[in-house]
Amino acid sequence: AKAGGIAPLVALARDGSDLQKEYAAGALRSLAVNADNQVAIAKAGGIAPLVALARDGSDLQKEYAAGALWGLAINADNKVAIAKAGWR
Question: Against a cut of 0.85, is the pTM above it?
């Protein structure tokens, strides 16, 4: 993440092909276990596309996005942002 990989992953989760969205959500799920990455993913605008995938994606996109949101929700600010984005 320190190498600048989070913003491109967020962009793929938002605008990529179905397979790119799946892989990006999976990578973000893995990164979201780290506190610094939780902040970086939110700052990169990652919450809204993950909520969208968790709602409307394929089964794997939903699984990976929900896992990423679960990791992001460990951070209190992210928890509020996730709720505001409409994930319940």
Answer: yes
